[in-house]
Design a protein that fits this description.
With 96 residues, the chain is an alpha/beta fold. It is built from two helices and five strands. The protein has a five-stranded mixed β-sheet with strand order 1-2-3-5-4, with helices on both faces. The radius of gyration is 13 Å and the shape is globular.
Length: 96
């Protein structure tokens, strides 16, 4: 079982973990190494190859990299505007 603010999305057909996500409430210019290490640990414990750090604003230096077999990305879920639109935009980015 994950703790903190981690979210897990499962494939409904297979039951496999598709995405491990961690929400952040501050938007630094780039993700901290501790946040990256934490999301890698979450993904590893879930046997997941997709790890997402979610920020409330776009980062100046977004992350899109691969560490071993885990793809790590930063995405935005803007909470300062219409949440329906923000959610739709987030899902477009997630599944792109």
């Amino acid at each position: 079982m994950l703790k903190d603010s981690a979210l897990v999305l499962f494939d409904i057909m297979t039951g496999q973990t598709r995405y491990v996500m961690d929400t952040k409430y501050k938007a630094p210019s780039t993700p901290g190494t501790d946040n990256v290490a934490q999301i890698i640990a979450y993904a590893t414990t879930q046997g997941c190859s997709e790890a997402i750090l979610i920020y409330p604003q776009p980062l100046q230096k977004p992350l899109h990299t691969k560490v071993q077999e885990i793809r790590i990305r930063t995405l935005t879920f803007a909470v300062d505007r219409d949440l329906q639109q923000a959610g739709e935009k987030f899902l477009e980015s997630l599944f792109a």
